[in-house]
Protein 1
Amino acid sequence: MNNMRYRIFTLLMVVEALALALLVAAGHFDTDRTAPARRCNRQLVRAFELTDLAIWTGARYTRHMSQADTFAAFQDSMGALEHFPEGALAPLPPLERPFRPEAAAEPAAGAAAYGKREHEPTS
Amino acid sequence: MNRHLKILEFALSTLMRHKIKNLAVVLVYTFVVFTLASVLFFSQALKKEATLLFDQTPELIVQRVTAGRHGWIPLEYCRAIEKIRGVKSVTPRFWGYYYDPPTRANYTFMGADVLPSEVRSMVRGRFFTPAESWGCVIGQGIADARLLEPDDIIPVRGGDGRLYVLRVKGIFQSSSQLLTNDLVVMAVADWRKIFNIPAGAATDLVTRIPNTREIDTVARKIQERLPDARPISREQILKTYDALFDWRSGVMITAFAGCLAAFAILAFDRAAGLSADERRTVGILKAVGWEVSHILELKFWEGFCISMLCFLTGVIAAHVHVFYFGGTVFAPMLKGWSVLFPRFQLTPHAEVFLIVVVWFLSVLPYMLATIIPSWKTAITDPDLVMRG
């Protein structure tokens, strides 16, 4: 019996590995099975122009995370203690990148060049 | 081959000699793997779901900011935005929040007159027609909270203090709960009456831009022409959800930090050196003729048996927990104070990759922590080792 330990252990490992493989495969088929429901949800997003998941309905800045004011999460009043657990679990808002594509920098560069020319000594 | 099996058999016998100690290690180790895998599976599944859904969201939403807060946007802004080159269309959105005292829940009221035909199949009952005043379609969460069925009524107190009665024409299918759980869709005119909103105002404007490379340019031009406007691009919406679930998974792991710390101490304890008993065993094995490679193989098998058993058990338990029980352990943390919480079925995404990540984070450090001190002892003289 004592020499059987490695066989029992190997059998246990094989059973567990097979179980995990089956679960992963089942999950893969589940993803395919839920595809029609997801397609419907995508149509809903498009039809109603939705922007957020309806998970946290406790406050407006947790219901519409992406539409919240830029100084979320303390929105109910300045300096108020956050009282919604989901608000406390929200990350700091990402630094809002101003919509300034590279082309917008050109006038500034032009102005700098103009300024430099203005201060150049005249010969 | 026979030699390897004999060493494996010996390793298992060694582990069985210290049953209680190794059982404690297995329990803590399995729980650590379970927690780590659950958090990774859960956050990845939700993040992927949000990404798959919101790639259909409008390219640009334009809000109006008044005194630092989101205010009603005048419909004249539509014309100013439509004139910008690259903009295909600008349509107003009408939505707002309503606190329902009987259920103590917040609902999202949305005004919509034009309803695409493909959406009608997603409703139990039917949609209201533009001619039907005070008809509405509600989310499954509201129907459950107020025990509503099609043709029931919802009394709503309006912004003017009057009581309005909405009649439920249909209920969104439960498969769309992730999006529609707290939604009440009604005609725009009814929405205006309830919230007392003037005719020329909307909540925000949806700007459709066919060429996605022009989104930033259009947003800049909107800000230049309408200084109080705040454009929110689709990219920003997707980034918000990306950051949100990364952050949440970090917070969840922090909540289980005590357990992780216990495991780290255990691993450190093993890495710091073998116990006197273990050192004596190594010394005896060397004295009876075992080579360094045999001792290393023995320690490898010991570490492998424990870590693979815990890894496989923990990952299987995490998969069942997240994808079959909806992440019950995390539910209180995830729900917060939401009264209406959607029931949703998560599906795995990139699971094999996540399993490999968990393996690298849990099995590899433990194996190294087992083998390195054994190697240090195995290369020492057996007499010295046994004398301590």
Protein 2
Amino acid sequence: MARSSLTDEQTRDVVSTSRAAKPADGGRTRRRRRRRTFVTIVLFLLPAFVLFALLVLVPFAVAAYSSFFKWNGLGGPPDDYVGLDNFKKLFGDPVFHADLRHMMILVVLSLVVQLPLALGLALMLSQRFHGRAVYRVLFFAPFVLSEVIAGVLFNILFSAENGIGLAAGWLADPSRVLYALFIVLTWKYFGLHMMLYLAGRQNIPQELLDAAATDGAGPWRQFRHVTLPLLGPTIRISVFLSVIGVIQLFDMVWVLTTGGPVHSSETMAVTMFNFGFRRFQVGYASAITMVMFLISLVFALFYQRFVMRRDIQGAITVMGETR
Amino acid sequence: MTQSAHAGRGMAGRRRRPLGTGMIYLVATALGALIALPLLYGVLGGFKDAGQLADHPLGLPHPWVISNYTGILKSHTFWRPVGNSILIAAATALIVVALGALAAFVFARFAFRGRELLAMLFAIGLMFPFQVAILPLFVLLRTFGLLDNPLGVILPQAAFALPLTIIVLRTFFRQIPREVEEAATIDGCSTFRFFWRILLPMARPALATMAVLAIVTSWNNFFLPLVVFNNPDWWTVPVSVFQFKTQYSTDYARVLAYTVMAMVPALAFYAVAERQIIGGLTTGATKG
């Protein structure tokens, strides 16, 4: 808030100095100039605003609205108001319960396995050794590929006919398919988190670690009491990205398993796709997206309120430094 | 406690390599092999025929079959989606950077009533997942006849990329000293000229980062083109990889070859624009 009011003043300064620069020749010129400024503002802002309103805000409002209707999405706006029926049905649906369970499992696995792995590798790669650049490129390579490419590749690799070794047939096994999905997600995304940690690690001044070492701190205590706390903001952001990514997961699941076998790897977005684009129960599907949105929103608000609060200043500083 | 103190004494001398070089190589190589394995499986699999792939999924091809790759390289079903993806990514980046820069300029350099409210409206857009909008978006695009039309993918992608672009560019534009604008105004430079001839060139690194971010997001987008494009002539790379796999479900060797070929443009782009991609990631992350 303080930031923006400061810039308000700055901007006003600019306007007033430019006005003072030319001798003011009466109210008419000033009014004309003010009107021209107004026209500039509108012309510059309008295209972005129209696009954003029409294709982000409106669809969003329609999704919220239609979640209270029984609607097939064809012909005309929704008119069969059903109140909270869609939501009642949703919370009684075992498929949706499974979606939530899968989400929780994937979140826990990501936080307990994937992120520590990424952190360990980042710390390893922040040391100097021959071929470090090659490993860095290799570890990051999967992230550059799209989820679809990764999904198709692993779909074949995990398949019963062409799969390799132990992995063969995992996708057909309801008790293992979720772990197969997690392995692919880790393969694809740990490189992103590794890169974030590497960037964070490079911002830690070597003097701090040297000072700790001089004071007799071993590698573990250097990590625990210097590196880890200073990486705090980066870690909190990567946790945030990871959780939000899992909540909204679609592409990878759709390509790898289409949610099967028998819903055992289904996510909320996949359920939504099935109801919205296959069975044309758009109202019900919208209710699913609203729950998905609310879960993301509640998580984001709580997280930013209680976990990232301290980092907001830091985040802005990092922003400045990235360019 | 005693253990770490002990370790501390032992390692204090080589503080940059707590793990020891040998250990590092071991771990890095083992993990590197695990990461590379699926990629190798794909590349080698593309050189097999269906029988070989089923019998020896991990072995070297024997004999090496190159017809999968050469067939794909000669085929329309590969180049057409690549062209579509390039067109759609470029158009998305152009629109989002152009509109985003205009709006960010106003947000950064003008004071007017309701500015913070409007800026907040855009910022809220960061919170809206694409998946929530996709059903109404589909209905909307159908109403406007934009299904099977590249604009049906380009415009929504640009709209969803606008919030982050505006926020980042606004921060950047604010950092440009106002003396620059004063000098320009005194020299009789109009607002648009200042924006076009002075501000934009100065902001080139930030514009490049946001453009690259939009290109990568567009290139990888699957959900929207999947529902918008029914006509194979418009399929983008991810959609056509997915459809190719469904179509050739009896010949996975050929699917692997296709998938490997589809990796090449993304990897090539990464090689060219690595700095912007990494920069965009850290920027996006700190704002997400």
